[in-house]
Fold:
Amino acid sequence: MNVDLTVGKPETVLWKFCLPLFGSIIFQQLYNIADSLVAGKFIGENALAAVGNSYEITLIFIAFAFGCNIGCSVVVSQYFGARDYRTMKTAVYTAMMSSAILCLILMVIGMIGCDELMRLIRTPEEVFADSKLYLDIYLWGLPFVFFYNIATGIFSALGDSRTPFIFLAFSSTSNIVLDILFVTAFDLGVAGVAWATFLCQGVSCILALSVVFYRLRKISTERKVPLFSIFLFKKFAKIAIPSILQQSFISVGNIVIQRVINGFGAGVMAGYSASVKLNNLVITSFTTLGNGVSNYTAQNTGARKLHRIKDGFRAGIKMVWILSIPLAVIYFFAGRQLLYLFMSDPTDVAIQTGIVFLKILAPFYLVISVKLVADGILRGSEMMSRFMASTFTDLILRVTLASLLSQTFLGATGIWCAWPIGWTVATFMSVYFYRSGSWNERKEPLRK
Structure:
């Protein structure tokens, strides 16, 4: 069901829109951690390290898909809010065609260059073969990743957060079942984990696209809808490219950090692989809610109801803090028990690495959550240069400090200390940009 986010009490509207996103977050993270959980529990510590090592590379491809999701979602939201349904449909088709070409290019690059990338990050020989196998299968499923992200971006743009929740619930639970089946019953090892992800992503993508096209057919327009627009492509690219660059550079930064981590051996790699999945549960949750704020902002920008955006920001802060406080407490005090979910017989090095990582990062979830809500406002109002500035500051600080501090007496612990520093500085920047930005003075109508 399509929902207009430009009418009603802002806090109530945003809460109703984002509540299904809370459920989606749970299933999205179940989807993300299932591979590591099954690999660690049913195959072994090296398999967990291999999946974690591959995961950092897959994040580069996900970054491109996520950027296309954001670009499509913001532009479609604006024209949906402006009630310009003909242009809205053209924006959807333009985004899909552009994303298809980008996906094909990335598949070719991935098939040619992933081996060298794994060597570049010093992937240990004992996990190299499994990492390569996982990545090879993942690449064949990349079109599913792209078009599923486009579909969910369209749903969000139309104010529908329930349909993506249903698809995620189906996909993530199926993925867990197939992971266990392929690994335990068919003894496929890491390949079984990868094929389970491939199949579930494929089914979800096809179902999501079917519903999208059905919804678009129900929205009538007076004239024939063009399938492509250069103007809308540029508008889409204006949002998508900075988002892609943001996510890509974060992924590249994580790969650089992974290279530093790999130098400490398989035990530290396994501990980091398990704990970073738990950390990503939190960060992805905040990012998802930030995306909801982006859709809210974009619809109200299109409808010229900019006075509603500040109320949306305050509601977004309440939502992320309600989520972050209990998670921070659980991670800080029960990190060991959570890590055992991923590892059946962990070494002391692996378990201690994960515990220290979680204890250092958990108290700062209240900080980074504020940044991601402010980023949602910046993206939804097309303040992409300021959004990029704060994001790159975070990345540069984390990568530089991780490399430097790991060479001190702190060792691997120095890597984890870089996170809170980067988060804190970048949060101050994003909030400053939100409060002092010129977006609240923008009154010109959307161009066609």
